[in-house]
UniProtKB/TrEMBL annotation, chains A, B, C, D:
Mg(2+) binds at residue 103. Substrate binds at residues 125-127, 162, 169-171, 221, 265, 271-274. The gene is pfkA1. It catalyses: beta-D-fructose 6-phosphate + diphosphate = beta-D-fructose 1,6-bisphosphate + phosphate + H(+). Belongs to the phosphofructokinase type A (PFKA) family. Mixed-substrate PFK group III subfamily. It comes from Planobispora rosea. The lineage of its organism: Bacteria, Bacillati, Actinomycetota, Actinomycetes, Streptosporangiales. This is Pyrophosphate--fructose 6-phosphate 1-phosphotransferase.
Length: 341, 341, 341, 341
């Protein structure tokens, strides 16, 4: 077989580990050939390929990013996109495609499969918000980076009697905030799933200051106050009506300063959460995803994606990936609330 | 209620996170009181306690080790041990005990429970070889430490055309070697579950040298050759007939040098794998274990231990912990073998 | 002797290492007694002390922050401040004071010395902008934290064809930006000492994109464009007329997007640069500063501060600390410019 | 000009940073051409070269090892070695050579210079024992790796009432042991410069145990007892009469167990101290060394090597590198002794 591989969507530590595992097992065990498509769906859409053999994947396991490049190009929004992809796959002599990406990338994969393309998916999201799998690679790395940053904030908070806010990724789901905040001993964690009451946040801040320790607040970028509080102005929202990146953390700092009279400072971690070398957890998960994906392609299990269930890697339908967002359940947030204040 | 807490056995990152979660929820949510017993079972045996309140657990979440101390004292091997413990628990006014430890500690907990002591267990092993739980805390930290060390060895191996061996923990189970070796791209991984063929190891070493890259071998301390190879001498074995710590790595280096004519060097990671601050995965798991353990004690679920199944924390019978060792299955080792050579 | 110790100004990794060294040598070698003053000059001003013996400094070497607390209280701006301090030192039976802090703290120390207080200073600034010493502790830690963050940004920048900007500390001097940018291979480094030409910055950005790699820009918070470019508005400046924290990075992103049509994103590292455990360099330097400071106090070398010259720790006049800001010289910036574009 | 570059001797983080800086400035500023010689002096001896242009040095700044490979080949010990090198340099059209290495590599460079070869040296030693420069790159990385390992040992030592020994590099000079031990709060530091009294070491161990804390001993691989103590046997010494690698740490553990009755365990860090990504200090120093070395070659300052003096990079005679070993002076060891016990 000749198999194409592409990576779509945002950066995520572990992408290269998946690619390496696919190629190593595909060539070494099954004797298949591979071709890389550049920059997500742009590659098959425009027919831009790159060599993808054993030599190309040497040494990439520990590296962040993706040697294939990525993009958010959506062929479904392009006139004749599907036909162009089918033509380019045929031209490149590709029998099957392994598509590594998040909701959008896998959504396209599903539609291509429905139109006759042999696709296997590998789920990828820093945010850990895909329903069909216990965890996605990249999440553990992001959580550790955020945790280390919050660990560092603790000493500054304590030495200077100042509230510190750390804004982490998570527009629709609060998994990174929940895990990083729990791991680093945050005094309050705010997530998109549960609109926060600013009065209660300030009460935590003030009670914490009474202990001679200073509060650390971890806030997901998609968190927001309950209706009617901290009214947002037009310039503070993006095209989707969400608070802009770096927005909610800054706003919260201002509001806390205004209401408590205490200094508050915000750090926005931004892209450093999704770059760099993956943790062991993510390298092992990504490698096992890659191994299972090439098995699936080899055995003709198309229209599926790989997933983690307990300690096993399984395949589920590609539509599982996109059916529903996995958000933080009330019970998990309640665990974290034990440590608030 | 008044609840005693103890930690037994070897050091393990996350012990303090368990203790903190138990106390924070026990005091804050349930209104219980706590007392710490020092140095594992030695504490209740000799009646040595320490205060264990909110103040005592402040700031301990990120710290390695255990504020309660530990030991390998086994009260079952001491004349009248059980009675002494029951007396000392009564004297200390303790209604229930939370015992955090490995196979040995939980084995004692089981026997005490059978004789009427109200015990809840929390499983702990760096080695991840307890059957009743998907993972134990400390394991992820150990794997990351070993992975980072192996990452570093890669550059030296490549610059100097020298085989490098990294000996990691794992006397009976090869989980750390498997995960760290897979995460760091080892060329061979040797585990206790599968006696190795030294000829094959040397063949991997030689084929790797032909690529201008140098081989990295990860070996669990309990790995050993197939019967008849590399005959061990008396001084190289410990009281149990195992190769001594730091033994198999050194022996392997000598054997490889002898057989291939290439230089080989060994690093023995030893105790650095079990000390220091836990990873996010271990801090979250340990915290959730602690929360569930105090729930179990509060609700009178004695004779149980907490466990991870998928993403849920559950309770299982204390005897589950000790029934069977969880070793690396053939299928998991086969995943790693794809990358050998 | 009975010696008081205080720490003033912003947080800085290594403060606890200085305190520990002062006390360990002062008690162990010289037999002196110590008392801690809380929260910088607020401590002696209000007579708030804490015990400072061998037990108090145990285990603090690797910890960020300061066990003594800190503040920006300036007794010179308080009516009768000097007299209050002298009274409180007398009440506490203190013969000499070791003041650890930056320009402001040491400026006060100098004035107190001029009015008869026996003071030894220890210089502290994350920013490395004190003229009398080759390096200050905390700087190496900040540079490593920033470098690791920029290392992580590289993979995201490369995978997504997006310009990434990292804003680091340095209001008046660009040392952190220079070292972190040089260490992490930034494509442009902008420092307060050299107003930047936005046209040239954009030219670098565009030429970099042509290589299929994406540009990383490191910008000190105090950097600013040459006169007349990127006119700042009122809300974007703080009370001193400086761009607000998190300001220049954001502004630069907008300007680059506008001028080049490429996406640009900013990460503001903020307080994580000054918290957490110090690097080895900073722990050794801070420890040696502490040892030399207690020697100076013991030998009556008051009115001095300790300093690093080459590999030696020496004492210089307290006024040396405040005479002149050490900014990045043209020759050092020229070294970095070799790698621009 | 056409300039050859080689790296000789043991691995050292920062080698690639030097190579990159040489090539980036050499090509970008001066317009020179470069050729890489493989595996130290073996390259020019056997005429084995590799391309070394801007593309070859892209992305190598953060990577450990050396893209040129290394070896301990000494052309002075090979019949006609010098002539072969001169011939091969002529054949490759090389006008000048930049040799990056330690005492041995620079010693050869000096002899070649004396026989008419245009050489500039860049000093490299993990051990920091070159007299002509304040620091060498690689040392700071090694110290940080060792410090982090010792930090981790602390918690295990404290939880288990066990003496822990960490053996670090340093056959002739104790710089790594001194800095890592001081940075990590070791209770005893043993270096080659000062033969240790085993009775005194055991006294420290026992007094430490009385505090409920456990002792950490950092020992350089070249440390040894005072004459007559702990008599070594033949199998424990290498060809030079030194204790074998991993030898002194193990021996010390046995001796401490025998004399104090307390458990003692050893970790031998070995090659992980010299691999992996360099710290910021080492990346900046290595980069500045590379920049200065190409300046020297460009300006015809042959027979020199670059060196750090204070914060400046200067050139000194190549013979400076090899004249005398820089060992730990008594005054520096005395600083560390303050914290013993």
């Amino acid at each position: 077989m000749r198999i194409g591989v592409l990576t779509g969507g945002g950066d995520c530590p572990g992408l290269n580990a998946v690619i390496r595992a696919v190629v190593r097992k595909g060539v070494g065990v099954y004797g298949h050939e591979f071709v890389g498509f550049r920059d997500g769906w742009r590659g098959p859409l425009e027919g831009e390929t790159m060599p993808l053999d054993i030599q190309a994947v040497r040494g990439i396991l520990p590296r962040g990013g993706t040697i294939l490049g990525s993009s958010r190009t959506n062929p479904m929004k392009i006139e004749g996109g599907v036909e162009k992809i089918k033509d380019n796959l045929a031209t490149a002599g590709v029998d099957a495609l392994i598509a590594i990406g998040g909701e959008d990338t896998l959504g396209v994969a599903k539609q291509l499969f429905d139109r006759g393309v042999s696709v296997v998916g590998v789920p990828k999201t820093i945010d850990n918000d895909l329903n069909a799998t216990d965890y996605t690679f990249g999440f553990d790395t992001a959580v550790n980076i955020a945790m280390e940053a919050i660990d560092r904030l603790h000493t500054t908070a304590e030495s200077h009697h100042r509230a510190l806010i750390c804004e982490v990724m998570g527009r629709h789901a609060g998994w990174i905030a929940l895990h990083a905040g729990m791991a680093a001993g945050a005094n309050v964690i705010l997530i998109p799933e549960k609109p926060f009451d600013i009065d209660r946040v300030c009460a935590y801040v003030e009670s914490r200051f009474k202990t001679r320790y200073a509060p650390i607040i971890v806030v997901a970028e998609g968190a927001h106050p309950v209706e009617g509080q901290m009214a947002l102005q037009d310039g503070e929202l993006d095209a989707f009506g969400h608070v802009k990146l770096g927005g909610i953390g800054e706003m919260l700092a201002k509001e806390i300063e205004k209401r408590t009279g205490k200094e508050a400072r915000t750090t926005v971690l931004g892209h450093i959460q999704r770059g760099g070398t993956p943790t062991a957890f993510d390298r092992v998960l990504a490698t096992r995803f890659g191994l299972r994906a090439i098995d699936a392609a080899h055995e003709g299990e198309f229209g599926t994606m790989v997933a983690l269930q307990g300690t096993e890697i399984v395949t589920v339908g590609l539509d599982e990936a996109t059916k529903e967002l996995k958000t933080v359940p009330v019970s998990r947030y309640a665990e974290a609330e034990v440590f608030f204040g």
